[in-house]
Amino acid sequence: MGANNQTWVREFILLSLSSDWDTQVTLFVLFSVTYLLTMLGNVLIVLLIRLDSRLHTPMYFFLTNLSLVDVSYATSIVPQMLVHFLVEHKGIPYVSCAAQLFFSLSLGGIEFVLLAVMAYDRYVAVCKPLRYSVIMHGGLCARLAITSWVSGSVNSLVQTTITFQLPMCTNKYIDHISCELLAVVRLACVDTSSNEVAIMVSSIVLLMTPFCLVLLSYIRIVSIILKIQSTEGRKKAFRTCASHLTVVVLCYGMTIFTYIQPNPSPSVLQEKLISVFYAILMPVLNPMIYSLRNKEVKGAWQKLLGQLSGLMSKLAT
């Protein structure tokens, strides 16, 4: 009975990024602006895709999913973090912590799988352009999107369930910006080496499997592009993949760079910075990358702004 009593922790305390008040206020302002830009940018991208029939293609269907994931991932972490910047007591209830871990972990996994799916879409577009509409039909796109959401969610459900079955005893201080998986596991008052190995294996599978698929897709894409005779043809083929490739390099690059360091595992500071990168920077960068580097999206923006300008002129007269 005593052991059972020890496993129940009513709330956890998040130590966040800094204990200095001025630093916290500065971070609150900076992250608030970034979060608002994230919401605005991704919502506008989704609306634009819905409103412009020229963007009703597999690539933009997957981009819609990516924008929804980015908004959801940022929302699972950032609002809680912003509140904690302004309050002295940085507590998060046990159930809320479990929910935050589940959603952030599942959405992170979904994004990695989605990027692999989008790489396959770009492979078909470049390597099999005449059969693109036949291969990437609506049914396949829906199944690939569902696979992304289900695989990330199932992995997260398993990891979250195992983690919150560990006895926490009286440990309640999480040295992180959110209820991150390894940070919560470290609170357990039992040997967690097997759990950490399982987490690492699961993370590698969920990260490296999509990464290998992305790599294979781009090896084939590059080999096809190099065979194109004209310079303009090569540039056009590369522009087809440029936005997605930029996002892939940013998304996978940070994690791979961190885990190939000489140290056996990232430091707590590195883990916090990685979380800030994925929760704050990536969600705001994705819509900017796809807007600035994509001719179709820029064209759709110009058309929409032109329509709005014409509507405003009519209302003014």
What features would you describe in this structure?
A three-stranded mixed beta sheet has the order 2-1-3. It is globular and about 65 Å long. Helix content is 78%, strand content 3%. The protein has helices spanning 2-7, 21-51, 58-86, 94-127, 132-135, 138-163, 181-185, 193-227, 231-259, 268-292, 295-316; strands at residues 11-14, 91-93, 173-174. It contains eleven helices and three strands, in the order αβααβαααβααααα. Mean pLDDT is 82; it is low at 1-7.
> How many distinct beta strands?
3
Low-confidence spans: pLDDT under 50, at least 5 residues?
A: 1-7
Mean pLDDT comes to 82
Instruction: Give the helix/strand class.
Output: mainly alpha
Percentage of residues in DSSP E strands: under 5%
Q: Report how far apart the termini are.
A: 78 Å
Shape: globular
What's the order of the H and E elements?
Answer: HEHHEHHHEHHHHH
